[in-house]
Amino acid sequence: MATTLHDVAILAGVSIKTVSNVVNDYEHIRPATREKVLKAIAQLGYQPNLSARSLRSGRTGVIGLALPELSLSYFAELADAVIRAAERHHLVVLVEQTGGGDRAREIEMLSSPRLQLTDGLIFSPRGMDQNDAALLTVPYPLVLLGERIFGGPSDHVTMRNTEAAKAATKHLIDAGRRRIAVLGVHEGELVGSSSLRLQGYREALEEAGIDFDQRLMAPVDRWYRADGAEAMRSLLASGVQFDAVFGFNDTLALGAMRVLQEAGLRIPQDVAVMGFDGLDETKYSLPTLSTVDPGRDEIAETAVRVLADRIENRDAPPEQYLTNFSVVARESTATG
Amino acid sequence: MATTLHDVAILAGVSIKTVSNVVNDYEHIRPATREKVLKAIAQLGYQPNLSARSLRSGRTGVIGLALPELSLSYFAELADAVIRAAERHHLVVLVEQTGGGDRAREIEMLSSPRLQLTDGLIFSPRGMDQNDAALLTVPYPLVLLGERIFGGPSDHVTMRNTEAAKAATKHLIDAGRRRIAVLGVHEGELVGSSSLRLQGYREALEEAGIDFDQRLMAPVDRWYRADGAEAMRSLLASGVQFDAVFGFNDTLALGAMRVLQEAGLRIPQDVAVMGFDGLDETKYSLPTLSTVDPGRDEIAETAVRVLADRIENRDAPPEQYLTNFSVVARESTATG
DNA sequence: TTGAAAGCGCTAACAT
DNA sequence: ATGTTAGCGCTTTCAA
Predict the structure, then answer these.
(1) Which of A47, A106, B67, B285 is the most exposed place for a label (fewest CB within 10 A)?
(2) What CDD domains does the record tag this protein with (chains A, B) (predicted)?
(3) The domain spanning residue A11 has which CATH number?
(4) Strand C bases with any atom < 7 A from protein Cβ
(5) Domain of B152: which CATH number?
């Protein structure tokens, strides 16, 4: 059996409350007493029982992180950053995978008893959408990530998608490109990363006085590498002319690069390629991929901080937090 | 306040114990009683308080997973698999990152109070080594992963490194290669992935009657893409001839591929390239990368099952579990 | 088949 | 500055 506060109290010759005070860094304790208690704690190797503590206090010190799947680099890197940020707030992270966009599973997860062990949740949905906003009304602190749902009942951390996509497009235009193909359009979508980024693209075009050309839009369902490759193949097959490609995420762009190279096109001489997400991997591809760094660490730090605040104060009205991005210029869009 | 067993008992007009029996699927309950209780549960939206349950039962239903960092695809994909496997065992996973090989941090983590909320730990060390085996004697169920420590006091799940590396090397030899450079040698290492894989390489060479050539060994400290690139550069600069490269992990191989292509060498015509780990990414590189699939799902499933068993029965002697691998032939080692 | 009551280890209110 | 005590919500004897 593990040692308890009680055991320590007996050994130190004080009351259980005094031990508790020492453990919880209560201020008004005589140094001699504290000394005695700490010695007893060390001697017995006492560690507080966290189940008992959380039963009593209503806090576990654990936050949940629900995301589609860690096999996708974007989410793996996000989880990495969230865990690091949580550590700074003395929180640990329980990771749940909801799968690649299974709406029902996401909804079920939101009311799973497994979350009981958790003080709050950071949730990155992929299947739920704007129509499900009401389902985010849950009886625990929740911070929403991403671009699937806006104006919901919870705190929301997201990046400036439209501005970022506009800046990325401008980067291509500044490099002298006029015929910029887009990979990742979700036709008919009104809210979400795709439509927000498309809007940024169009704004950049307009400012530069370039006409929008529907034939340059390559629609894809999912944003995996294979989809980027396939979209690029059909774009090439369509015969439409282009001198740049903007992938709405890095994975699409990397898939497209591969097909371009297979087709004998040089990057960036013949076609410049731009990604979005700032994946680690983009530093190492051949050529290295220009991308938009969405400020992952800032997103994670903000999400954890907001959640921690929300755990402290549940009554404050929900807010939206926008993080900063930066355009990262690499070989795939180099000029001259 | 959340509803409790007590509330349900009152509403259903039974004792608290009866409700508990229903919740825990105790058999001998009159159907009518169960009905009544279930109705009350549904009506109140009752969910058991897991802190209270675990205080009483000593179980949390949470297992810990400690690994270096999720930003490394290998560990992200491992975590994905472990979380999936845990779900099948009705367990949730708390993920801890120990950083890229910080021994002190790993040791500290092993006795962290944060693990209190956990029924056991799956631990993939990267800084600790054979000399630290004794430190794995911990007062909770522990399953060790990887190749850093053998014969420790805990259960251990690992792959057949030597056999797998031998099979990979044989694959290159069968493709007609005789001068196979190796990326990832840790000089002076006696235990660990590197030395085990090197041994497999040497065995394959020996069987094929090929002399071992020290000049083909490219030592690297870390196994990141940049290290693979750098090692390949120095190998090329050294002027030594080779017709194949075996990276001791996929990341090294991918880094090397990039440098080979920059140098104008064709893969696989001039140099065949083989990786190790079976990362998702190897399916999408240009060319696709031949690799060794270490059976990640099997590793994860085994680790979780063994841990769950160990949680049930702490007294059984520790065992070692070896998982199956397969050589995945792709474009980077294609012949003809 | 169901009920009563003890207590897991801790924190917090109150008392001294 | 330190001690006493009452639960937090649950499971688990032990009874009935």
Answers:
(1) A47
(2) HTH_LacI, PBP1_LacI_sugar_binding-like
(3) 1.10.260.40
(4) 1-5, 7-13
(5) 3.40.50.2300
Shared domain check, B130 and B251: no
| Percentage of the residues of chain B whose pLDDT score is greater than 90 | 70
Answer whether B316 touches A (CB < 8 Å): no
Protein residue at shortest CA distance from C1' of D11 = B56
Q: Chain B, 33-52: which have a CB under 8 Å from a chain A CB? A: 47-52
Q: Are residues A176 and A274 in the same domain?
A: yes
Note the pLDDT of residue B187: 87
Q: What is the three-state SS of chain B?
A: CCCCHHHHHHHHCCCHHHHHHHHCCCCCCCHHHHHHHHHHHHHHCCCCCHHHHHHHHCCCCEEEEEECCCCCHHHHHHHHHHHHHHHHCCCEEEEEECCCCCHHHHHHHHCCHHHHHCCEEEECCCCCCHHHHHHHCCCCCEEEECCCCCCCCCEEEEECHHHHHHHHHHHHHHCCCCCEEEEEECCCCCCCHHHHHHHHHHHHHHHHCCCCCHHHEEECCCCCHHHHHHHHHHHHHHCCCCCEEEECCHHHHHHHHHHHHHCCCCCCCCCEEECCCCCHHHHCCCCCCEEEECCHHHHHHHHHHHHHHHHHCCCCCCCEEEECCEEECCHHHCCC
Number of domains in chain B: 3
What is the pLDDT at residue A1? 58
Interface mutation target, options A50, A77, A332, chain B, most CBs of B under 10 Å: A50
Nucleotide minimizing C1' to CA distance for residue A57: C11
- Average pLDDT, whole number, for chain B? 93
Taking the complete model, does pTM exceed 0.90, yes or no? yes
Q: What is the chain B residue with the closest CA to A57?
A: B51
Q: Which domain holds residue A115?
A: 62-158+296-324
Q: Report chain B residues whose CB lies below 8 A from the CB of A61.
A: 114, 117
Instruction: Give the C-alpha separation, A217 to A186, whole Å.
Output: 10
Residues in chain B, pLDDT under 50: none
Residue B330 lies in a domain: no
Q: What is the pLDDT of residue B273?
A: 98
Name the nt closest to A55 by C-alpha to C1': D8
Q: Are residue B198 and residue B268 in the same domain, yes or no?
A: yes
Rounded to an integer, what distance in angstroms lies between the CA atom of residue B228 and that of residue A129? 42
Question: Is residue B313 situated within a structural domain?
Answer: yes
Residues of chain A with pLDDT under 70: 1, 336
